Amino acid sequence: MTIDEYLNRLEDDIRRLKIEFDIFFNGGSKRPPYDTKGRVDSIIKRLADDRSMTFAQRFRYNSLVSRYTSFKELWRRHIQSIEEGVNPNEKLAGTFAERPSAVGAAAAPTVVSPPPQPKQFSGYSVTCSDPQMEVDKIITLYNAVIDAKRQCGEPTDKLSFEQFHKIVVAQSNKLKAQFQCPSINFSVEIEQGQVKFKAKGSR
């Protein structure tokens, strides 16, 4: 792999790790995502002493490492809160998953208290041909459901990602067989103050 490919993978893995830790802290997973964390640490170590990086590549690398270091400290505090019997959900800022940020930002986001209010939910839809394998799409869809539920004041602690993923896969298989279509469109909307999750065949 080239250095740019390593940097792209590092950025993708940090983003995925952030989502997986959010899922863990919201009760959607029983153990922290240490496997993904190990991959991130491995790439960081691999690139640390690479003297062939250009100035731009080194700047991007340092920015990603700075961002990751900030996240690690936040995760450490959340895990410590769990060990001390404090609900870490009370400390999670913003919506369920990380929002896109500029590549090569000079510094990682700063955690503040009290946390900001979630972004106003305006609906979301995604089309999947194989939700069993398209995990990234299902994670984003799950995040949208969580955002919508929070805006409507509906409980979210009993809806784990694993349960949601199974529901989406089952609905997809059922609808594709029923309507003989190659993919399914899933949508999340708020109607009259209630969250509506819909699925329909798509060509």
Can you characterise this structure?
The protein is mainly alpha-helical and 203 residues long. The chain has two domains: 3-91; 124-202, no CATH class. The chain contains five helices and three strands. Helix 1 (3-25) packs antiparallel against helix 2, helix 1 packs parallel to helix 3 and helix 4 (135-152) packs across helix 5. It is globular, with a radius of gyration of 19 Å. The model is unreliable at 90-116 (pLDDT under 50).
How are the SSEs ordered, and which strands pair?
Layout: H1 3-25, H2 34-48, H3 55-83, E1 124-128, H4 135-152, H5 161-179, E2 183-191, E3 194-202
Report the span from N to C terminus.
37 Å
* DSSP E strands, number: 3
Mind summarizing the main beta sheet?
3 strands, antiparallel
**Average predicted local confidence, pLDDT:** 81
Give the helix tally. 5
Give the strand line-up of the largest sheet. Answer: 1-2-3
| Share of β-strand residues | 5-15%
Written as H for each helix and E for each strand, in order along the chain, the element string is: HHHEHHEE
Q: Uncertain segments of ≥5 residues (pLDDT<50)?
A: 90-116
Domain module tally: 2
Helicity level, as a percent range? 40-55%
Q: From the helix content, strand content and strand pairing, which structural class follows?
A: mainly alpha
Question: What shape does the CA trace take?
Answer: globular
The whole-angstrom Rg is 19 Å
